Amino acid sequence: MSVMKIKRKTKTVWRVHWREGTHHRTRHFDRKHDAVLYDAEVKRRKQLGDLHTLTASRQTLAAFAEEWFQLYAVPNLAQATQRSYATLWDAHALTRLGGYQLRELTPETITRFRGQLEHAGIGPSSTRRTLVLLQGMLERAVEWRRLSANPAKTVKKPPQQRKKAIRPLAPATIEQIRRHLLAKKRPRDATLISVLAYAGLRPGEALALTWNHIHEHTLLIEQAIAFGEVKETKTGQRRTVRLLTPLAHDLNEWRLASGRPDRTALVFPGRNGQPWTDDAWRSWRRKVFQPAATAAHASDATPYHLRHSYISLLIAEGKTIVEVARQAGHSPTITLTSYAHIIDELTDSTRRSAEAEIRHARNNPIPRNTTQPAGSDKEARTA
């Protein structure tokens, strides 16, 4: 390491020269004072074993983002998440921060970036998600020794907006949806509604079920469909879900109607027996599910809402939070956070089995409150 004076035709510059591994590095300064300070910084970082950040952090954020997407996002994140992040990056961050070198990013720079988003009318949710993306991206920059610290970590983000309280559909409403589909001669779709509502599967998990996954007393959930491909579940974990007797009956009827397909076949095959594509799912949701839900006076419902119904049934049975969370495929903390109001509503209710609730709804086609938690009405408790 050294500071050297160099005379050029037009001016004098000061050069700092050092060796980093097998590479020789050089940087020029107009003032000796700046060169001396930089030379001291080189020596300090060399002693700390942090010398690489002096050169690595010259990479622009735009260039690093491309590297991050290829090395981290593609192998580790779901395609839907990749698309969401790419949209946020292109729309909000690339033009505002992409030209900055990594070493130029400071908490102040990123705080100013947040202000720019808000001034441009970007909503709190998108602003928060963009800052979370940026923080995660720069965390990899720290891990890959491009930065010594994450400048986005201390920047305050907009508070996360509260989601609307979950309002599960009662079995009576679910049965109205099923009756509508059966009347339209759509047994496959009626059975899919049963799986979503009475096993609590996510749509992608239901569409990835094969007949091998259906056992005598349980459903094995170990894969899901995303963008027309069978992959691991959202959490990456395998779980079993209790197979309620009414659902077992529906699945058996559907298998008979399907001509007893091979055990390896999909329970709900798409075109030519292949997994459903994203377009096929959106079309089904719009053309098949929505009219049936509207006929059942539940026009605001989505297929994913049916999952909440199963969780509500488990809570009405008096299952522990740990057991409910295990069958739902998420953590007990999320269960408590998302379903606290339902738990409170059903705390003093007489316990009633999920199977009894479903049988009551099938045998009594008089609609109940479409968003009432299972097991909460007097009629159900005394029937």
Describe the structure.
This protein is mainly α and 383 residues long. It folds into three domains: 50 residues; 83 residues, DNA polymerase, domain 1 (Orthogonal Bundle); 212 residues, Intergrase catalytic core (hpI Integrase, Chain A, Orthogonal Bundle). The chain contains 16 helices and seven strands. It is elongated, with a radius of gyration of 29 Å.
Level-1 CATH class name of the largest domain: Mainly Alpha
How many E-type strands?
7
Q: Which CATH architecture of the largest domain?
A: Orthogonal Bundle
Q: In order across it, which strands form the biggest sheet? A: 1-2-3
Specify the helix fraction band: 40-55%
Domain count: the total is: 3
CATH fold-level assignment of the largest domain: hpI Integrase, Chain A
Compact description:
The chain has 383 residues and is mainly α. It is built from 16 helices and seven strands.
